[in-house]
Amino acid sequence: MCLPGPMRACLNVDEIVRLVASELIASKAKATAVALACCRKNFEDPVLDALWATQESLSPLLRSLPGDVWVTGEDVGVPTIFVLPLLNSFIPKCLKRPPTVSEWGRFRKYARRMR
Predict the structure, then answer these.
(1) Model's pTM, two decimal places?
(2) How many angstroms separate the CA atoms of 12 and 52, rounded?
(3) Ordered DSSP codes for 7-50
C-alpha cells in the first residue's frame, strides 16, 4: 500500500507514531501493532515500548529467554527466581545455564521498556 505524500510524512513524526502504537495496544489490537512494527522500522521502538509498558508481571520478560536456560520440572535449586504471574501463585525458576550474550541483549532490550 502506497500512502500519499502528507500521510507518509506524518508517519515519520515520532509523536504520531507513538500515539498510533499506544492507541492500538490500548484497543487490544496488539497483532496489528506488531504487524506494523514488522513492516515499518520506525514503528518498532514505539510498539515495543507500548507493549512492554503494559505487562503486569515478569513472566513475559522471563519467557524472552530460551527454554533451555531454565531447569524444568520440580527439581529447582539455588539460585531460584520466583515469578508471580497471578496473585497468590509463585512459579519457581532456576537457571540451568547462563544465557548467551545475544540472549541477554534481547532480555535487556525488553526489560528496559517495562514499567
Answers:
(1) 0.66
(2) 22
(3) HHHHTT-HHHHHHHHHHHHHTT-HHHHHHHHHH-HHHHHHHHHH
For residue 27, pLDDT beyond 70? yes
C-alpha cell at 6: 502528507
What type of residue sits at position 91?
I
Pick from 74, 76, 73: nearest CA to 95: 76
Summarize pLDDT for 68-112 with one digit per residue, the tens.
Answer: 887 766 555 555 555 555 554 555 667 788 889 999 999 999 989
**The C-alpha cell that represents 60 in the structure block:** 513475559
